[in-house]
Design goal:
The chain is of the alpha+beta class and about 375 residues long. About 15% of the residues lie in helices and about 40% in strands. Strand 8 and strand 9 form a beta hairpin. Helix 1 runs antiparallel to helix 4. InterPro entries: APD1-4_M, APD1-4_N.
């Protein structure tokens, strides 16, 4: 080579290529495979992809501000026959014509038993199947509804208004019996909406195998009853038009002035009991709302959720870490194993909306990273004798 071509090639080999070889490991270590923080909640099960590589990481360590279980394995674990029990006690103070919802991701084979009552007349529960983020069709923002196209498959629901000593009535219903029950009642829309709190500096898990409670609604920042919208049933009609193909349950709560806490539901008294057997995986939302002439209505509910668990069989001790706050796994070169993290929920635990910070760290594989500086030195030596 002669002239300009030789100068260009020489510059590329002596400046650009060494620069790439120096910058690449810095980018990989500090950006591509940097430490990753996740916000996860009680009963979450996640699979970690981000910030991990079987080539550039020789170890994968985890640290969280609460105990967790971790498993290193190929693919996705299978569901076991054993189910775990989660008990949630919820007390809500809802202004007239407002709502509050609690959502759960449930596998086929799970079941939910809901007991509830209200202090005054007019409180109801609406159960719908939705997406990861509940689609409210713009209703909470005051917009005209936009129908959610997602359709519910057959789901068995048992609704009972009962006294623990003498059952008053028991009806088995499917979704078609519940679509337009009491559509003529009113709820007023508001422009506030509360979704699950997510810090933007934290990352969302790549693969969510199971997840905890999703909580939201428009009853949180209202201090006085709305007097602007007096149209009959406008908001609830929009709710039914939004969720008509997804509605599983729509029932009034029995009311009593003595319904002032969840202990009332464990006494010998009358309450609404819903038994919901899940036949298809998905997100299920229990929407509580009130429509009466009082400024506030107290609603108390107890969820007993029985969820299938994942099974991790035939795993060595080096591939699993149980009930720890820190774990470390060796990563084999070209391995397709990933780490699954679950926040355990003990049987009968009264679960709250607690969230935790999980730190995932890739420990660099020195034998791979050392290639970059050695390559730069070899280039320098090579061109020194040209």
């Amino acid at each position: 080579m002669h002239g300009t071509q030789r100068v260009v090639i020489f510059c590329l080999l002596t400046t650009v290529l060494p620069a790439i070889l120096i910058i690449s490991p810095l980018y990989l270590r500090n950006i591509k495979y940097a430490d990753v923080m996740y916000r996860i909640s009680d009963s979450d099960v996640i699979q970690i992809h981000k910030g991990q590589s079987s080539i550039f990481c020789q170890k994968h360590s985890l640290k969280m501000n609460s105990s967790f279980n971790a498993f290193q394995m190929k693919g996705r674990p299978n569901l076991a026959e054993r189910r775990r029990h989660i008990k949630l006690r919820k007390s809500m103070k809802l202004p007239d014509d407002t709502l509050e919802y609690w959502g759960f991701y449930l596998f086929a084979g799970a079941s939910v038993e809901l007991k509830g009552c209200s202090r005054y007349e007019g409180s109801k529960v609406l159960v719908v199947k939705g997406d990861k983020i509940l689609n409210t069709c713009g209703i909470l923002e005051g917009d005209k509804y936009k129908k959610d196209p997602f359709l519910v498959k057959d789901t068995q629901v048992s609704v009972t208004l009962e006294n623990p000593i003498n059952k008053k009535r028991e009806v088995i219903k499917d979704k078609n019996d519940l679509l337009y029950n009491n559509i003529s009642e009113e709820i007023v829309s508001n422009k506030t909406k509360n979704k699950r709190n997510v810090n933007p500096s934290l990352h969302s898990p790549n693969t969510i195998l199971d997840t905890g409670v999703n909580h939201g609604g428009n009853a949180f920042n209202i201090t006085t009853k709305s007097t602007e919208d007096k149209s009959i049933s406008s908001f609830e009609t929009n709710l039914f038009e939004c969720y008509q193909d997804n509605i599983l349950i729509n029932e009034f709560f029995p009311y009593s002035i003595e319904c002032n806490n969840t202990k009332y539901l464990e006494e010998i008294t009358k309450y609404l009991k819903v038994e919901h057997k899940i036949t298809s995986d998905g997100y299920y939302y229990y929407i509580f709302y009130s429509d009466n002439d009082f400024v506030y209505n107290d609603i108390h509910a107890i969820f007993d959720i029985y969820k299938p668990t994942f099974q991790y069989s035939n795993m060595s001790d080096s591939k699993m870490c149980l009930n720890q706050t820190e774990c470390e796994f060796d990563v084999d070169m070209f391995s397709d194993e990933l780490v699954i993290v679950e926040v355990p929920t003990k049987d009968g635990l009264n679960s709250n909306d607690d969230s935790f910070i999980l730190m995932s760290v890739c420990h660099p594989r020195i034998s791979v990273y050392i290639f970059f500086p050695i390559s730069v030195l070899l280039l320098i030596l090579l061109f020194a004798f040209l």
